[in-house]
Write a structure and sequence with these properties.
Blueprint lengths: L4 E10 L4 E8 L5 H14 L4 H11 L3 H14 L3 H17 L3 H18 L5 H16 L3
Antiparallel strand pairs: 1-2
Helix pairs in contact: 2-3, 3-4, 4-5, 5-6
C-alpha cells in the first residue's frame, strides 16, 4: 500500500531550535492532480527498462551524480547499440544540466555516431542529436 500526503501547514515549534510541526493530509486515490502527475510520469518513462526509468527519474530530481553513475554503469554493461546511443544522449543531457557544454557535445556526438550507423537517414532521433549538439554550441558561445 502506498501513501501520498500533501503538506497542509508548517509551524515552527521552538524559536531557539529548528523544530517544526508539519501537518499532512492524506490524498485520496481519486485526487485529479495526483492522477495527472502519475499519468505524466508514466508517459515520460514508458518503454524503458527499470534502470533507465531510475536514471530518468534521478535526472528529474536533480540527482545528477547518481544518475551519471547509473548511466555509466549501464553503458559498461550493455552491448546493444541503440541502448548505448540512448545512454550517451542522457549523459549529454546530464552534462548540459551541469552546464558542462563541451562534455555534453562529446556525449551527444557519440550518440549521433551510433544513430547514424543504426537508424535510417530521415529518422527523428538524428534530428534530435543534431539539435542537441547545436544547442550546446550556442550555449558555449560558438
Amino acid at each position: 500500500m502506498h501513501a501520498v500526503f500533501r503538506i497542509g501547514h508548517i509551524q515552527k515549534l521552538d524559536n531557539n531550535r529548528p523544530l517544526y510541526q508539519v501537518n499532512r493530509k492524506l490524498t485520496s486515490d481519486d485526487n485529479p492532480q495526483l492522477r495527472q502527475l502519475t499519468n505524466r510520469l508514466r508517459e515520460e518513462i514508458a518503454d524503458s527498462t527499470g534502470w533507465t526509468r531510475l536514471g530518468k527519474m534521478l535526472l528529474k530530481l536533480g540527482q545528477l551524480d547518481k544518475a551519471e553513475e547509473l548511466f555509466t554503469a549501464q553503458l559498461e554493461q550493455t552491448s546493444d547499440e541503440s541502448d548505448k546511443a540512448f545512454i550517451y544522449n542522457e549523459l549529454g543531457r546530464l552534462k548540459s544540466d551541469q552546464e558542462q557544454y563541451t562534455e555534453a557535445v562529446l556525449f551527444y556526438e557519440k550518440s549521433l555516431e551510433i544513430n547514424r550507423k543504426t537508424l535510417p537517414k530521415g529518422h527523428s532521433n538524428l534530428a534530435t542529436s543534431y539539435n542537441n549538439i547545436g544547442v550546446m554550441y550556442k550555449k558555449n558561445g560558438r
